[in-house]
Amino acid sequence: MQRLLTSVLVGFSLAKSVFSFTPGFPYGSQKVRGVNLGGWLLLEPWITPSIFDNTGNNAIVDEWTFGQYQNHNTASSVLQNHWNTWITESDFGAIAAAGLNHVRIPIGYWAFEVGPGEPYIQGQLPYLTQAVQWAQNHGLKVIIDLHGAPGSQNGYDNSGHRLPFPTWHSNQTNIERTDEIIKTIASMFAGQPDVVPMIAPLNEPAGYDGSAVLAAVRQYWLDSWGNIRYPHSAIGPAFCTPPHYQGVAMDTHIYQVFSNAGNEMSWQQHINTACQYQSILSGFDLWLVVGEWAPAMTDCAKYLNGRGYGSRYAGTYPGSTAVGSCNGLTGSGSTFSASYKTFLRQIWEAQVISYEKVTDGWLQWTWKAENADEWSYQAGLKYGWIPQNPTNHMYPNICG
Ligand SMILES: *[C@@H]1O[C@H](CO)[C@@H](O)[C@H](O)[C@H]1NC(C)=O
Fold first, then answer.
1. What is the pLDDT, as a whole number, of residue 15?
2. Does the keyword Glycoprotein apply (predicted)?
3. Ligand 1 site, residue 24, Cβ cutoff 6 A
């Protein structure tokens, strides 16, 4: 998760002909309503800060350093316990019961293949297979999301390796390894297009870091289309021909909290911004899904900007000026004021209404977080700022 940018989801369905095919979900005629299972098969410090704090080592800031600076058996057993407990089948039941139809599951490349000198710890892949089974048991669709690539595609901790500048795009070996992993994912779930209708080949590559990144990403999207679609095509070579946009969706991510200006906005300005996305997002000629967004409207959550960094909202992040205190704006929903919970409901609905009006649907980031309930779908259901049925709106006219 981070910032506003786009990536590509590639549909995974059997082809009926070059010009029409049957996806595992009626994209375009039915809205995607879903949630990300963030911080599960790929650690993010802000989603599970305790896992990082318990190491007693401040140099452990991402999953790379989690493996690098600890005894292997210790790190491995902490991860195994986390994979076993953070998400279980009961979560899939609760997600389906909340009226959602999709989950997006982030996973890092190292689940599939670890190169020499890379300190990542494996063992998460069986949980992905298990998750797909659980999704099927509860009638949910899965978008498998490659969230971390060799060399890091964006330099954020959520790619597995926090770096000053991404290095995925500048090294052809990294890109080729990623292509192979996408082929592996595609083959693993080739027989289940009804449960895994989409694969997101790379989360948030840093296209904003310059033309070299953009060029690598463009080629990678094209290659991924072939890598994902071809093995599953019923008609073989015909599918290698353009149009390349067949079965492709844009996955856009929308946050208002990763800039000083975003943190300085009033609650009403946040709502207005959410409503303005009705015009910003309109007119796409591909399927469009808002694959990450959240009701959180501050960057107050501990470690949200990385372990060791503060928040713009409290003025403890480099280059920011305090807007106010983070007290009562993050942590447990049991501490949130009535007016804050009303605002969370309003900003949740303003986004859902806007995204459903002009896109093919949405997936909130994220299902659960240890101590940042403003981001958590599960907590929103519990404390009431997210409706038990996502079509049940208290503020249907919030965008006018
Ligand atoms: C390119 O990346 C691979 C790992 O994917 C690494 O082994 C190799 O040293 C890198 N090459 C350069 C020139 O950095």
1. 33
2. no
3. no
Return the pLDDT at 186: 92
Q: Which of 22-26, 27-31, 33-37 has the lowest mean pLDDT?
A: 22-26
Q: How far apart are CA 378 and CA 373, in angstroms?
A: 8
End-to-end alpha-carbon separation of the chain, Å?
29
292 in catalytic set = yes
* pLDDT class of 11 with cuts at 50, 70, 90: low
Centroid of ligand 1 to alpha carbon of 174 (angstroms):
7
Q: What does the block give as tokens for 16?
A: 């009926």
Amino acid identity of residue 293, one-letter, is W
> Is this structure's pTM higher than 0.85?
yes
Distance from the CA of 228 to the center of ligand 1, in angstroms?
25
Counting every residue written for the chain, the total comes to: 400
Question: Is 279's C-beta closer than 6 angstroms to any atom of ligand 1?
Answer: no
Q: Which domains does the chain have, with CATH numbers?
A: 3-8+11-383 (3.20.20.80)
Q: Is 204 a known active-site residue?
A: yes
3-state secondary structure of 25: coil
State how far the Cα of 343 lies from the Cα of 216, in Å rounded to an integer.
41
